[in-house]
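Write out the 3D structure for:
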Amino acid sequence: MLFNSIQYLFFLPLIFALYWLVNKKSLKLQNILLLAASYYFYACWDWRFLFLLMFSTGLDYYTGLKMHDAQSAKLKKFWFWLSIGINVGFLGVFKYYNFFVESFADLLSVFGFQANFWTLQVILPVGISFYTFHGLSYVIDIYKNRIEPERNIVDYSLFVSYFPLLVAGPIERATHLLPQIKKQRQFNYSQAIQGVKQIVWGLFKKVVIADNCAFFVNQLFENSGNYSAPELWLGAVFFAFQIYGDFSGYSDIALGTSKLFGIELLKNFNFPYFSKDIADFWRRWHISLSTWFRDYLYIPLGGSQGGRSMRLRNTLIIFLVSGFWHGANWTFILWGLLHALLFIPLLLTENNRKNLSGGTYTLRDIPKIILTFLVVCLAWVFFRADNVTEAFAYLSGMFDVSHLSLKLFFKDGKYALFTAICLSSIFFLLATEWRNLKSRSYEIQLSKFTIFVLLLMIFFMGSFKNQMSFIYFQF
């Protein structure tokens, strides 16, 4: 079920009404309703994978209790590694098995050996990377004695499978979400209105910005050899706004939906395209994932406490793993590697925490923002390309000045219209986000007039004809 679908348009008000009108006095019934709604929401994708979600939930719930009640450190460690092994094993089989097999076969072919290995003919379970990380953080926190295990199976199951964040995050922590699930909730009108505003804002970013930009991006990346350097640059820029509009739009709808039920989710984006350097960008982009890797991988590896070689090693590992988390393709690994290479000079010069000023900007920051955005756009080429060869071909074309043209964008009225829609929408996005950034508020600050304009743009400029899924559903 897509957030931008007619089905969701009927699903959300129904659950909202049942939640507050029928079950408002019973926290237990509210949580059961949300859990049932979450399972239905997930089953709409493929009901068969619902059993995998339930198994993963039951595994972590049970091992959490066994670790807490273990009579020895050895037994506790056994249950810990059992949970980690099975969870990572499922993720590895469904998401990475074919990648490793095909990569090994390609390596053998280099030495003249032809091998035909068995590969899985199965689609990737939607959201598996996200709900697996929910469970992993819970198990690790219990093992490290940071939290007590949850003994209410309904509450724990809801933590893992809460439908606003189930398929594309944000990646929640038990320490943040479980206390809210267990706490009696009262309807808050201002919180609900803020939630509706955030849903509208997210829908605008998805159907007006992301889906319209995709019209150009798909053509350019599928046939990059037919277009000039300026067109390819605009294609990379449009993809930067496509993926931001798509993913942050999903996150806004998720956060706004959750507000309707009195639950606050973790903020996942903080105006990333106003970053002053790559380190600043990663503090603002997909925050729940970057902080997850920081807390559960980077710091356990030693973080920044060791010498220069250790810091370089840990930084390289964290970016490569982050890239690989996004998909089983060498393009994602190179994307992570490129960001590591951009980040390391800041680390070596101890400037990686220089830009922590938040909403404080001067005219001298404009060149920094533009430069950071351009290198991010270059890195996005690897993220979007189907394979490494196509990525390098696209990048080569971006710097080929022998042929300069913008014919794709202006060759007929249809393309000119889409160009106008994309550019005007991006300008509106940046202007609105700049105002929100300057307010230094974590809430979306939108006036009634702005909401009215957004709704008009969604209705008249939204791309609904060919309903597009969210990009991060594939991860």
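The chain has a mean pLDDT of 88.
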